[in-house]
Design brief:
Layout (H helix, E strand, L loop, with lengths): L2 H12 L5 H12 L1 H4 L4 H7 L4 H10 L5 H12 L17 H22 L2 H12 L4 E5 L2 H15 L4 E4 L2 H8 L7 E5 L6 H12 L3 E6 L5 H5 L2 E4 L10 H23 L3 H20 L1
Helix pairs in contact: 1-6, 1-7, 2-5, 4-5, 7-13, 8-13, 9-13, 10-11
Length: 287
């Protein structure tokens, strides 16, 4: 991975958990990464109306030993003919066509960063657990609930027994019925939704394999799950956290689904049978 890609990926992953002062520093980098690379730590602190300690903390959050290393990474990124570290924010007076292009840049940026964040060993472990699962519980509240429902529909199509829980009460009730050999996959952008965290903790106590799909690497959900699948996505202006995370979460869902399909001998036949079950109904509707 090129250095420019690396700093972009690190920044996207850090934004959801950055402090207010760290976010101010990131904003300066956002608008002019090449210019930020020319600033000393004191100058960057002044430019972002923060402190030198805030700059250093952000650098360390991004995985660098200190600001000099971050500055070198920004300089390397600035030498490449690439788009800005972040896609341009949506303004209140943007025309529809401009909003479309900006959202395309946002979503593409988030999915590329998610692909870079994904740990192959973790993804393999999650797929292994799903392939051998007796039962799969999928949890998501709000927009994440739509992602949970999407994964449930896909896994059901290939003959797996699973359920999508889109309310806290449902998640807790279903978790109380889990056993060893079951798998729980929880979706939460922040990783701090109380009901989701409690359901995962309950599932873990029942010796169910637990998976967190979240942008909050240090969140309560991440700390509660056996496997953490990180997704990129930032809440910004007219884009809520739900919009920021949904496409990245769906990318993870599709990746897990295809991998499970590849490793389950009975899945292709099940997929064909479920397709045939509704094919005739589609034909009648067309007529």
């Amino acid at each position: 991975m090129a250095e420019g890609d690396d700093i972009r990926t690190r920044l996207l992953a850090a934004i959801p958990r950055a402090t207010p002062s760290g976010l101010k520093v990131a904003r300066v980098i956002q608008h002019d990464p090449s210019g930020a690379a020319q600033l000393t730590v004191t100058q960057l602190a002044e430019r972002s109306s923060t402190s030198t300690s805030a700059v250093v903390r952000l650098a360390k959050m991004l995985g660098y030993d200190g600001y000099p290393q971050l500055r070198l990474a920004l300089a390397a990124a600035g030498t490449e003919d690439r788009s800005p570290v972040f896609a341009t924010d949506i303004d209140a007076d943007d025309e529809l066509s401009k909003v479309l292009h900006k959202l395309t840049a946002f979503e593409t940026e988030g999915m590329l960063a998610t692909a870079e964040l994904a740990d192959p060993a973790t993804m393999e472990a999650v797929v292994d657990a799903l392939v051998g699962a007796r039962r799969v519980q999928l949890i998501g509240i709000g927009a994440s609930g739509l992602v949970a429902m999407d994964m449930a529909q896909k896994l059901t199509r290939i003959g797996m027994w699973c359920s999508a829980c889109t309310s806290e009460d449902d998640a807790l009730m279903q978790a109380s019925l889990l056993e060893a050999g079951d798998v729980t996959v929880a979706f939460s952008h922040s990783g701090e939704t109380a009901g989701v965290v409690e359901a995962v903790e309950r599932a873990a106590s029942a010796r169910s394999t637990t998976v967190a799909v979240t942008a909050g690497v240090q969140s309560r959900l991440a700390r509660s799950a056996a496997h953490i699948v990180l997704v990129a996505g930032r809440e910004d202006g007219f884009r809520s956290a739900a919009m920021a995370s949904r496409m990245s979460q769906l990318l993870i869902v599709d990746t897990l689904y295809v991998s499970v399909l590849q490793r389950t001998p009975s899945a292709p036949a099940a997929l064909r049978r479920t397709y045939d079950a509704v094919a005739d109904r589609r034909t009648k509707e067309v007529r």
